[in-house]
Write a structure and sequence with these properties.
Length: 685
C-alpha cells in the first residue's frame, strides 16, 4: 500500500499537466504537483494548505462554485479557459479542467483541478488573428481583393474585399466564377474572359484593366493580376489573383486627360487636341487625295454680350452656340473651341466646294434664332473663314492662320457671312502681330486721319453735324478701315493715345469750321477701354481750350457697355464731362441690352439707333417695331434720336414717318475728307 502510494505520488509529481487536489468543504488546497506550482510561479510547498480564493481569480472561483452546484445533477467534469495572473504578475492563458470526487452521500469532497498553460499557443493564435485582420484592413484600404481557385475541387475562395469590390452580397453558398463574370461590363466581358483563357493556356500571368457594371448602373474600374500553377504534366492545379478597385485613380486620370485636351466651358476639344485631330485628318486626306476643310468661326458682337450682361451670360451663350453647331458635326469631324468666341471646325472627306458652301450656310442659319439666356433673347451672328487642305496650305498652323485671315475678311464684309481664303488676302490683311507693331509707330508718323460723315437734322432740314471716323493710311497697305485695327488697338491699350489724338483733331477741325461760319457738331467715338483707362475729362478739357471750340459743338459717342456698369465712378466721369458743356450720345443703341431708364440718370442727349435695325426696317417687321419703339420712348424721355445706316430713300421715308430727329447714312453722304464736308455743307439745300 505504501509502495502504491509512493508510486501514485511519483506519477502525480511527474505529470505534464498541473494537478491540484482541493478540499471542497473548506476550499483549501491539499496537494499540488510540481507542474501546477510551476505554472503559477510557486514552490509546491507554498500552495499546500492555501485557500483556493487566494490562488484563483474571482472568475475561476465563480466557475468552481457554479460547477459545485450543478455537479450533482449533471456531469462531474468541467472545462474552461481563463486568464490567470502568474505570481510575478504576467498574464497566463490557462485551460482548466475540473473534476470532483464525491463522498458516499454524493457530496463533492474534492476538486481535482488540472491546469494546462496554453499561453504560447494562445499568443500564436492571436498573432494569426491579428495578421488576418490587418491583411483584411490592408485589402480594404488598398481596395485589393484576392482569390484562389482550386482545380481539383473546383472551388473558388475569395477575400471579403473581393465581394466588396464586385458588390456581391450572399447569404449561404459563396458566389462562384460565373457570378463574378456577370458583374463585368458587357462591353468588356468578352475581352476579359479571352485574357483569362489565354493566360491559363499559355501558362503566363496576366495584368488587365476593365470595367464593372453594377446593378444600379454605376461603373467601376478594376485592375486584375493573376497566374496559375501546374502539375508536372502541365495540368493546372490552382489559379490565384488580385483585383484592385482603381475607379478613383482612373477618374482622376480621365479628368487630367480631359483638362489637358478639352475646353472646360463647352466640353469641346481644345487647341491641342484640335491640332492633333487636324494633323490626322490632313494625313488621311494626303493618303486618299481628299480634302480637309477648316472653318474658323468668330461670333459677331459677342464682346457686347460679355461686357453688358456679364461673363456668366456670355458663357451660357457660348454653350448654346456649341450645342447648335454640334448638330452639324459628324463623328469623323472635329469641333473645337480656340478660346474666347472662336471655334475651329475641321471636316474631312468633303466631296466638293459646293458642299462646303451648303454646310457653312447651314451653320450661319443656326444664328437666325436668338439665344435665350435668363429670358434675354440674344441676337447673334457669326463670321466664318474657310481654308482647305491642300489648296490653302498643308500644315495645321498655316491652314488655321489662313482660315483666321478669311474670317477677318468675312467680318470686314459686314459680318454674318463666310469667306474662302484667297492668297491675295495676305497682302491686304496684315497679321495681327505686325499690326500691333505698325500701330505703335502710326501715331508718330501721323498715319491716322479723320473722315467725317454728315448728319442731317430733319426738323430744320440742315446739316447739323458730322461723325468723325478714323482711317489709317498704312505706308504699304494703303487705307485700313477702323474695324480692322481698332480691336487690336483696344487689346494693346494703344486705343487710349489714338483716341486722344482723335479728340484733339476733331476739336481742331470743328473749331476751324466754326470760324468759317459752319456750325457743325462733331461726334467722336469713345472706346470703352479709353473711357476706363484714359483721363477723358482732362483730354477733352485740353482739346477744347487749345482749339477754342465751343463745347456744345463737341459730342462724345459712348456705347451702352460703358454705362451699363453704372458704378459711382462712371457716373462721376459722365457728370464731369457733361459739366464741361459737351453733348453725349449712345452709339449703336439697341444692341447692348440696356434699359432706357438708366439713360435718364446719365442725362445723355441722343440715341444713335444701330444700323442693323435701320437697314432692315423695310423687310423685317420686328426691326421696324424696335426702331419705332426706341424713337417713341426717347421722345417720352426727352432724348433726341438719330438713325444711322440710312442707305436709301424708302428707309429714309419710313424713318422720317416714325419721327426720328436726325439721319446719317450713305443715302446722304459717305464719310469724307474735311474739305469735302465744306462742299457738302454749302451744297445742301
Ligand atoms: P460706328 O460708330 O457705328 O460708325 C458708323 C460706321 O458705319 C462707319 O464705318 C460708317 O462708315 C458706316 N456707315 C455710315 N453710313 C452707312 C450706311 O449707310 N451703310 C453702311 N453699311 N455703313 C454705313 P467705319 O468708318 O468703318 O467705322 C466703323 C466703326 O469703327 C465705327 O462704327 C466705330 O465703332 C469705329 N470707329 C471709327 N472711328 C473711331 C474712332 O475714332 N475711335 C473709336 N474708338 N472707334 C472708331
Ligand atoms: Ca459711332
Ligand atoms: Ca454706330
Amino acid at each position: 500500500m505504501i509502495f502504491f502510494m509512493k508510486r501514485l505520488e511519483s506519477i502525480f509529481n511527474n505529470l505534464h499537466i498541473g494537478v491540484a487536489v482541493c478540499n471542497a468543504a473548506n476550499n483549501r488546497i491539499e496537494s499540488v504537483n510540481a507542474v501546477f506550482a510551476r505554472i503559477l510561479g510557486y514552490e509546491p510547498g507554498e500552495l499546500t494548505g492555501a485557500l483556493m480564493e487566494d490562488i484563483f481569480t474571482v472568475e475561476c472561483m465563480l466557475r468552481f462554485g457554479a460547477y459545485k452546484n450543478t455537479i450533482s445533477e449533471c456531469s462531474n467534469q468541467g472545462l474552461f479557459e481563463t486568464i490567470h495572473q502568474h505570481k510575478d504578475g504576467v498574464s497566463l492563458f490557462l485551460t482548466i479542467h475540473v473534476s470532483a470526487t464525491k463522498d458516499n452521500e454524493n457530496n463533492v469532497e474534492y476538486f481535482i483541478v488540472n491546469l494546462t498553460d496554453v499561453t504560447k499557443c494562445k499568443h500564436q493564435e492571436l498573432l494569426l488573428e491579428q495578421k488576418e485582420a490587418s491583411l483584411k484592413e490592408v485589402q480594404k484600404i488598398t481596395k485589393i481583393g484576392s482569390w484562389e481557385f482550386c482545380f481539383s475541387t473546383m472551388t473558388l475562395l475569395c477575400s471579403d474585399e473581393m465581394y466588396r469590390i464586385f458588390e456581391i452580397i450572399f447569404d449561404e453558398s459563396p458566389p462562384s466564377y460565373p457570378d463574378f463574370i456577370e458583374v463585368i461590363h458587357p462591353d468588356d466581358r468578352e475581352r476579359v474572359v479571352r485574357v483569362y483563357h489565354k493566360s491559363l493556356n499559355n501558362e503566363t500571368s496576366y495584368d488587365l484593366t476593365h470595367r464593372l457594371l453594377l446593378n444600379d448602373g454605376r461603373i467601376k474600374y478594376v485592375r486584375e493580376w493573376g497566374k496559375s500553377y501546374y502539375d508536372p504534366s502541365g495540368n493546372p492545379v490552382r489559379s490565384t489573383g488580385m483585383v484592385q478597385d482603381v475607379t478613383e485613380r482612373t477618374m482622376i486620370e480621365k479628368k487630367v486627360e480631359f483638362i489637358a485636351h478639352y475646353d472646360a466651358l463647352t466640353g469641346l476639344p481644345n487647341r491641342i487636341l484640335a491640332k492633333d485631330r487636324a494633323e490626322q485628318a490632313i494625313a488621311y486626306a494626303h493618303r486618299n487625295g481628299s480634302r480637309t476643310v477648316f472653318l474658323f468661326i468668330d461670333l459677331d458682337g459677342f464682346k457686347t454680350v460679355n461686357d453688358s450682361l456679364g461673363h456668366s451670360v456670355g458663357d451660357t451663350m457660348l454653350r448654346m452656340v456649341t450645342q447648335r453647331l454640334k448638330e452639324h458635326i459628324r463623328e469623323s469631324d472635329t469641333m473645337s473651341r480656340q478660346g474666347g468666341d472662336e471655334f475651329l471646325l475641321i471636316f474631312s472627306d468633303i466631296a466638293s466646294i459646293s458642299d462646303v458652301v451648303i454646310l457653312t450656310k447651314n451653320l450661319l442659319k443656326e444664328f437666325d434664332e436668338p439665344f435665350v439666356v435668363n429670358t434675354h433673347p440674344l441676337a447673334s451672328s457669326a463670321s466664318i473663314g474657310i481654308a482647305i487642305y491642300p489648296d490653302h496650305g498643308d500644315t495645321f498652323e498655316v491652314l488655321l492662320q489662313n482660315a483666321d485671315t478669311a474670317m477677318y475678311k468675312a467680318k470686314e464684309s459686314g459680318k454674318n457671312t463666310y469667306c474662302f481664303y484667297d492668297p491675295q488676302m495676305n497682302h491686304n490683311l496684315i497679321g495681327k502681330f505686325k499690326m500691333q507693331n505698325d500701330l505703335k509707330i502710326a501715331l508718330q508718323n501721323s498715319e491716322f486721319l479723320l473722315y467725317y460723315q454728315p448728319q442731317i437734322d430733319l426738323a430744320h432740314h440742315k446739316v447739323s453735324g458730322v461723325e468723325a471716323l478714323i482711317r489709317w493710311r498704312h505706308p504699304q497697305m494703303g487705307m485700313i478701315p477702323p474695324m480692322s485695327f481698332i480691336p487690336v488697338a483696344e487689346s494693346t491699350g494703344l486705343i487710349v493715345q489714338i483716341g486722344e489724338w482723335v479728340i484733339r483733331e476733331a476739336c481742331r477741325q470743328a473749331a476751324l469750321w466754326s470760324q468759317q461760319g459752319m456750325s457743325l457738331t462733331v461726334a467722336v467715338n469713345i472706346s470703352a477701354i479709353q473711357f476706363k483707362q484714359g483721363d477723358l475729362e482732362a483730354v477733352v478739357r485740353e482739346a477744347l481750350s487749345v482749339s477754342g471750340l465751343d463745347p456744345r459743338y463737341l459730342e462724345l459717342e459712348l456705347t451702352e457697355s460703358i454705362l451699363i456698369h453704372d458704378t459711382e465712378n462712371i457716373y462721376q466721369t459722365v457728370q464731369t464731362l457733361k459739366g464741361l458743356g459737351i453733348q453725349l450720345s449712345i452709339d449703336d443703341f439697341g444692341t447692348g441690352y440696356s434699359s432706357l431708364s438708366y439713360l435718364k440718370r446719365f442725362a445723355v442727349d441722343k440715341l444713335k439707333i444701330d444700323q442693323s435695325f435701320v437697314r432692315d426696317i423695310l423687310q423685317d417687321q420686328e426691326d421696324a417695331v424696335i426702331v419705332r419703339t426706341i424713337i417713341q420712348m426717347a421722345k417720352n424721355l426727352n432724348l433726341k434720336t438719330i438713325a444711322e445706316g440710312v442707305e436709301n430713300g424708302e428707309v429714309f421715308n419710313l424713318i422720317r414717318e416714325y419721327g426720328c430727329d436726325e439721319v446719317q447714312g450713305y443715302h446722304f453722304a459717305e464719310p469724307m475728307r474735311a474739305e469735302s464736308v465744306e462742299t457738302f455743307y454749302l451744297g445742301w439745300k
